[in-house]
Each structure stands twice: as structure tokens, then as C-alpha cells.
Design goal:
- Helices cover 53% and strands 13% of the residues.
- The protein is of the alpha+beta class and 765 residues long.
- Among the domains are: 145 residues, Beta Polymerase, domain 2 (2-Layer Sandwich); 127 residues, Up-down Bundle (Four Helix Bundle (Hemerythrin (Met), subunit A)); 180 residues, Alpha-Beta Plaits (2-Layer Sandwich).
- Strands 8-9-11-10-14-15-13-12 form an 8-stranded antiparallel β-sheet, sandwiched between helices. Strands 3-2-1-4 form a 4-stranded mixed β-sheet, sandwiched between helices. Strands 5-6-7 form a 3-stranded antiparallel β-sheet, covered by helices on one side.
- Strand 8 and strand 9 form a beta hairpin.
- Helix 13 packs parallel to helix 15 and helix 19 packs antiparallel against helix 20.
- It is globular.
């Protein structure tokens, strides 16, 4: 039976707690203190027992534990009959202390046998460290495990590589996650362990200084995360980022995350390179006649050798400033890695590009940007070597810069590269594909400066494009693309396209059809690179409809009107009866017009746990038409028949929406962290016939219902509406008129409505 807590157990607990509670102990010093506390205590417990040894494995064996880490221990013995009693004397006090314990008791041969069949056990034993007892037992174990690992390295490294790949798919890339897992994500600590294991097989070199420094960053953050939360967690969630940043001396959470993301990228890049080296080393040896590998020309001064891009024998980076761009373009176009020795030469010897760039440099740069998905790995390689900053010096300002928005799946720099990749698929839609690629690269470059990123980008782009040697008209085009890169999606999702003011304002901003096509393609590329929540069929249809209408105006024709309804929806309108169509992620509700329909429909959808991702509301004759883009808040979609039934009850005022929503809201957690308070804006230049009131807030159950109910209670008629959900945030725009059909002009009335909308936005806080 387990013993009661004893003085020995309290001593272990107190020694570890003393280290954790010392505020000046951080990083490596904290890890050393945790190891020392455990080592000292364990040595005292084991004493001078012959024929046994305590061996630390895992994080404890590597001397990099965090406050919440397990004690990973192996009790080795030489066959003693009473080894169970020895183990109990150690394990029970550890359990009593409250310290998590991962333990085993084995002879050397047994441990080696387990390692042969269990990859996790083998990896742990590769980090075995002697703690107490007979050191010869530990040495025998280490030698046997290493010998077996090296002897069977082909099988074991193949297993390990498969595990690394699967873990990366399962946990995502550390460098591009809002809340990364510091250990399991691609670029996390387990990748460092995997590289060390590959090096232990004598197949590749051990991780270098940059990788070890990156691992130190993650270990330091992990240690403070454990200390901050009081538990063993490796996921750096949003609410812990600022406290951890303060403990480690970073200016703020953004500076912390830039360091974390930079470390993750360094580790991921090195890991990829290590596994390429492993694959090369494990290839069957060439026959003697094939030992001299062929060199295939790729570009001037650039060749392929052994599946890598290298410099030609007569290439001279110091005398050829465009060579760096030709190497990068060749690597991307042929989807090949740049050899490390070639990268080293380019770092050491490359001449600076003249300013402005010669035409050959611009051509090579555009070829690089237009190379497709392989652009990502090439830019990452250049970035890791510090070479991409030589091409775009402003890159340092956006490198690893986090985007605190759940819609964005990437940091700013990676988002820009992904946008270029997406734009490469759309170049046939525009007359200037080169400017589309360059615009995609620059559209968010302003996020590296304080203030509004669009305004900052407009200031930065002329200097940058001028350095590239672009003619003034092309520079002006890029400036317009950056200034207006949000125009089409914002207007399409937040403004009434049937209002002539809307389309004429867009036409004035884009000026000509060529620019309209560029912005259309950039909008799609930007959204696809942002993440799944930023683009979908409904949003694409709205943007396409806006572009179609704007093109007509640019051609000198009147602004087209008419709703973007398909044949099935038009048939519902023509029938002239209450009807509900649920098709996939779209809900269309057609009903004889009456006041307050919008809040009724919003309430019904909220009751059925449907999040409104986008919506539009307008009138077709005597019929009110509302089309919602929806997704289930949790679980599977509701029954279409149930939605239809509740819509009919709501129309007949037979559904207690408010009471049922209040009950539903109480079932949801309300302690959600909100980065900013809600805001209400009156947009006076958006329409000549209506007032446009825009609500920007954190999404919550029943929010759209509450907002539209406020407008109805204020006696306003919602002539049109656009609702846009971006991650956990919403921007809802309502075109409203008063009872007389006029815009709302009175400042006191506006203030009262704004106050009520703000209160509705905060109702669940």
C-alpha cells in the first residue's frame, strides 16, 4: 500500500518548489535548479545500494525540464531479487510529493530489448543520464542502446521520419499558429530531439548553434508557461502570452511571439535540411562509373547537382549582383533546394544589387514570385540565411510578425508569400501579371509600421518599387493596389450593391478596368492566403457581383441593379409566400414584408446554433428576401425542417425568441477574452438615400438578433444589410431609414441608437 506523505516526500516537493518560486531563476538557470533538486534528492534516497543505478531519461535526462515536467526515471539493476523493495523506497515518496513520475525497472538487456521495438523508448534512452548508483550500469546501457541505434539506423530513422511528418500534420506549424504547441508542433522541441537522434546514428551532424539557440528560446518560454499556469502545458494560449512575455523580459506579447515564431522557423528549416541529408546518406552507393555526378544547367551561372541548386564553376557572386536572384528563381521554378554550401557562398560573396535594379534583376525576381508553391520553401531558405532582406530590406519589419486575428493562419511575412502563391494561379485574369505578383507581395507590407497598415504601405511602396527600377506608372499602380486592396471585399460584404452610390464610389477608386481586374485577383489571393474563414462561395459571389457592376460603370453605362439571386431563389420570390430554403451553408428566407423580420430570422438561426458568417437583406417588390451564409456553432447542422418550422412560428409571433435565447446564452461561457470593446460607426458617404450604421464587435450567441431588435425598436426600417463574420469578430452594416423613409440625421437620435447597439453588443459580457 502507498505510504502516507513523509518528510522525504516533503523534501522533494519543497526543493522543487523553492526553485520554481525564485523569481530570478529563469531559463537555463531554472532548468539546472530543477535538475539539481531532483538529482540530490534521488541520490540520497538510493544511497550506496550496490548493483542498481537511477537513470534520468527524456527531458530530465536532457537537463531541460519545465516546472510541470514528469520525472522520467529508469531503475537499472544487475538482477537483484530485492529490486522491487529498492524501487518502492524511491517511487512512493515521489508519488507522495505530488511530482509526476514516469518510471520503469529493468536490467540492461531488458531495456535494450524494449528500445529495439519501441521508438519512443529508444528516443528516451538516447538521452539517458546517470543520476545515482552504479555508473557502470548506466554506461553499459548507453553503449548498448547507441550501438543498437547505429546498427539499425536505416529502419529506426525511417520510423522517426514518419513520426516527425505525422506529428507535423497533426499539430501544424509552430511558426504560424496563434496558440502554438511548443513541443509537438512542426518546428517545436520534439523536432530538435529528432535531429539529435539522427545525429546519434552518425548519419548527419548534430544541430548547430542557431538551432540550439532557438531551442533555448522555446525551453525558456515553456518553463515560464508552466510556472505561470501551475500545470504541465505546452500550448501557449493567447491569455498566457502577455504574462509570459513580462516574466521573460520581452516588451510585450507580440515581441515574445516574434521570438517564438522565429525559433520555430529556424528549427523547422533545419529539420527539413537534416532529413534531406538523411535521405541522401541512406541512398544505395553509386557504382564506380557513376560516382561523378552530372551537372545540369538551370540558368546563367546556376546548375543542378545531386538534386540541389549549386553555382556553376565559373560563377562569381561578387561580380554578378543578379546571381542571387537567378539562383532563387531557378530553385523555385525547378522545385529544388539550394545547396547549403551555395547558400554560404551567396551570403559571403554576393554583391549588392545596384539601385535602381537592372531589368535582368526585375525579370528574375518576378520569375521567382511566379514560380508557384515552391516559392514558399525558397523564400524560407533565403530568409533563414538573411538573404531575402537583401532583396527586400523592409522584410525585417514584418518577419515573424504575429497577426492577432483568428481569421489569419499565418504571420505577416508568410501571409504575403502565400498571397503571392495564390496570385500566381490568377495571373491569366489580368493584363499585368507582374504587377499582380508584386502587389500581392506588398499589399500588407505596411503592417511592419505603426498605425494603419494601408496608410503605411502607401508611404513605403514608392521607395521600395523605385529601388526595383519600376517606371512611374507601374509604381502608381502598385500604390493604388496597396491603398485599395481591401476595397472590394469590404464594400461587397458591408454595403448595399443596389445603392448607386456604392458602385460609383468603387469605380472612382479603381479608375479603370485594368486596375479593377488587378484588385479582383488580389482580393481573392489575399483571402485564400488568409484562411478558410476569409473566403467562400458566398463572399466570392458578392465580390464578383460588385466587380460586374463596377465594370459596367467604368464602361460608361448606368450602375446595374438587381439582387444576386439564383434561379431557385427567384422562384421563391415569384411564389409570393413565406418560404425557407436550406441548401448547404446557405439559408434563404422569403416572406411578405413586415417590420422586424430581420431580427426574427436572426433569432431563429441563433436558436438552432447557427453562426451567421455573412448575410444580405433586401426587398423584391412586396417580398422581403434574406440570404444567410451560416455554419454550425457546434456539432452537425440542424434539421432543415426544424429551421423552417421555427421561421414560420417566428413570423406568426408564436415563438418566444427572447426567452429561449436568454436560456441558450446562459448555457455558454461568458468569460471570453476580448481584445477591444465594441464600436458603432455612422458612415455618411455610403448612401444617398439611407443611413448606414456599422457595428464592429466580438461575436456571441444571439448578437445579430439583439442588434436588429434594437433597430426595429427604434422605429427604423432596415432596407438592406450586410453581415460579415471574420473569425471571432463581426462587422455588421445596416442601411436604415426612419418611419418617413428618410435617413437618420438627428445627432441625438443617432447617439441613442448607438448607445443601445453598444449595450446589445456587450449583453453577454
Amino acid at each position: 500500500m502507498p505510504s502516507e506523505p513523509t518528510g522525504r516526500a516533503a523534501a522533494l516537493r519543497d526543493a522543487r518548489q523553492a526553485a520554481v518560486e525564485q523569481p530570478d531563476l529563469r531559463g537555463a538557470a531554472l532548468r539546472d535548479a530543477l535538475c539539481a533538486a531532483a538529482d540530490t534528492w534521488l541520490a540520497e534516497q538510493l544511497g550506496d545500494e550496490p548493483g542498481v543505478a537511477l537513470v534520468a531519461v527524456g527531458a530530465y535526462g536532457r537537463r531541460d525540464p519545465a516546472p510541470g515536467s514528469d520525472l522520467d526515471l529508469l531503475l537499472l539493476h544487475d538482477g537483484r531479487d530485492d529490486v522491487k523493495a529498492v524501487a518502492d523506497r524511491i517511487w512512493y515518496p515521489v508519488w507522495d510529493s505530488g511530482v509526476a513520475l514516469d518510471h520503469s525497472v529493468r536490467m540492461v538487456g531488458e531495456a535494450v530489448s524494449v528500445a529495439r521495438d519501441d521508438l519512443k523508448a529508444a528516443l528516451g534512452l538516447l538521452d539517458a543520464r546517470h543520476v545515482a548508483g552504479d555508473p557502470q550500469l548506466t554506461s553499459a546501457l548507453r553503449e548498448a542502446v547507441l550501438a543498437q541505434w547505429r546498427r539499425e539506423h536505416r529502419r529506426r530513422l525511417a520510423e522517426l521520419h514518419a513520426e516527425v511528418e505525422e506529428r507535423g500534420r497533426r499539430h501544424g506549424e509552430l511558426a504560424f499558429l496563434l496558440e502554438p504547441d511548443l513541443k509537438e508542433s512542426r518546428g517545436g522541441l520534439r523536432d530538435v530531439h529528432a535531429m539529435r537522434a539522427a545525429a546519434a546514428a552518425w548519419v548527419v551532424d548534430a544541430p548547430g548553434e542557431r538551432v540550439l539557440a532557438a531551442a533555448e528560446v522555446l525551453l525558456d518560454v515553456r518553463g515560464e508557461l508552466h510556472r505561470q499556469t501551475g500545470r504541465a502545458t505546452d500550448r501557449l494560449v493567447l491569455q498566457e502570452q502577455q504574462p509570459v512575455a513580462q516574466r521573460l523580459g520581452y516588451a510585450d506579447a507580440d515581441e515574445l511571439m516574434r521570438a517564438v515564431y522565429g525559433a520555430g522557423r529556424t528549427i523547422a528549416f533545419a529539420c527539413d535540411e537534416a532529413w534531406r541529408r538523411v535521405e541522401t546518406a541512406l541512398r544505395p552507393p553509386r557504382r564506380w562509373r557513376q560516382r561523378r555526378s552530372e551537372r545540369r544547367p538551370l540558368a546563367d551561372g546556376v546548375v543542378e547537382q545531386d538534386g540541389e541548386v549549386v553555382l556553376a564553376r565559373d560563377a562569381d557572386p561578387a561580380a554578378d549582383p543578379v546571381l542571387l536572384l537567378r539562383v532563387a528563381a531557378a530553385a523555385a521554378e525547378h522545385d529544388l533546394p539550394i545547396a547549403l554550401h551555395t547558400m554560404d557562398r551567396l551570403v559571403r560573396e554576393s554583391a549588392e544589387l545596384p539601385q535602381p535594379w537592372p531589368a535582368a534583376a526585375r525579370d528574375a525576381f518576378v520569375a521567382l514570385l511566379g514560380s508557384g508553391p515552391s516559392l514558399v520553401s525558397v523564400v524560407e531558405a533565403l530568409d533563414q540565411a538573411g538573404l531575402f532582406e537583401r532583396i527586400v530590406p523592409e522584410w525585417e519589419r514584418v518577419r515573424c510578425k504575429p497577426q492577432r486575428n483568428a481569421v489569419h493562419r499565418f504571420t505577416v511575412d508568410r501571409h504575403l508569400v502565400e498571397a503571392v502563391v495564390e496570385a500566381g494561379n490568377l495571373t491569366r485574369r489580368v493584363s499585368r501579371p507582374d504587377l499582380l505578383l508584386l502587389g500581392a507581395l506588398l499589399h500588407d507590407i505596411g503592417k511592419g509600421w505603426p498605425g494603419d497598415h494601408t496608410d503605411a504601405g502607401v508611404q513605403v511602396v514608392p521607395q521600395l518599387a523605385g529601388r526595383w527600377g519600376l517606371p512611374e506608372p507601374d509604381v502608381a499602380t502598385l500604390v493604388t493596389m496597396v491603398r485599395e486592396h481591401l476595397t472590394l471585399p469590404d464594400v461587397a460584404t458591408r454595403r448595399d450593391l443596389d445603392d448607386p452610390s456604392t458602385v460609383h464610389a468603387v469605380a472612382a477608386a479603381v479608375a479603370d478596368r485594368g486596375m479593377l481586374d488587378l484588385l479582383h485577383a488580389l482580393t481573392e489571393a489575399d483571402a485564400l492566403a488568409t484562411g478558410p474563414a476569409a473566403w467562400g462561395d458566398w463572399k466570392a459571389r458578392l465580390v464578383d457581383d460588385l466587380v460586374r457592376r463596377t465594370a459596367k460603370v467604368l464602361e460608361g453605362e448606368p450602375a446595374p441593379t438587381g439582387s444576386p439571386l439564383d434561379d431557385e431563389q427567384l422562384a421563391l420570390v415569384t411564389a409570393g409566400e413565406l418560404a425557407v430554403d436550406v441548401t448547404g451553408d446557405r439559408v434563404t428566407i422569403v416572406a411578405p414584408d413586415r417590420p422586424g423580420l430581420l431580427w426574427r430570422w436572426a433569432g431563429v438561426l441563433a436558436l438552432h446554433r447557427l453562426t451567421v458568417r455573412s448575410a444580405t437583406a433586401f426587398s423584391e417588390g412586396s417580398m422581403a428576401v434574406t440570404v444567410f451564409g451560416v455554419s454550425p456553432r457546434f456539432g452537425s447542422p440542424p434539421s432543415p425542417d426544424a429551421v423552417r418550422a421555427d421561421v414560420r412560428r417566428a413570423y406568426d409571433d408564436a415563438l418566444p425568441i427572447a426567452a429561449r435565447l436568454a436560456e441558450r446564452e446562459r448555457a455558454y461561457a461568458t468569460d471570453v477574452h476580448r481584445a477591444a470593446p465594441p464600436r458603432v460607426l455612422w458612415v455618411d458617404d455610403a448612401s444617398a438615400v439611407s443611413s448606414v450604421v456599422e457595428v464592429r464587435a466580438h461575436d456571441s450567441v444571439g448578437l445579430l438578433y439583439r442588434l436588429t431588435k434594437v433597430l426595429a425598436d427604434a422605429g427604423l426600417d432596415v432596407r438592406a444589410a450586410r453581415m460579415s463574420t471574420l473569425g471571432a469578430e463581426v462587422v455588421d452594416a445596416f442601411y436604415v431609414v426612419d418611419a418617413a423613409g428618410r435617413p437618420v440625421a438627428d445627432d441625438e437620435i443617432r447617439a441613442a441608437i448607438s448607445s443601445a447597439l453598444l449595450e446589445a453588443s456587450r449583453a453577454t459580457e
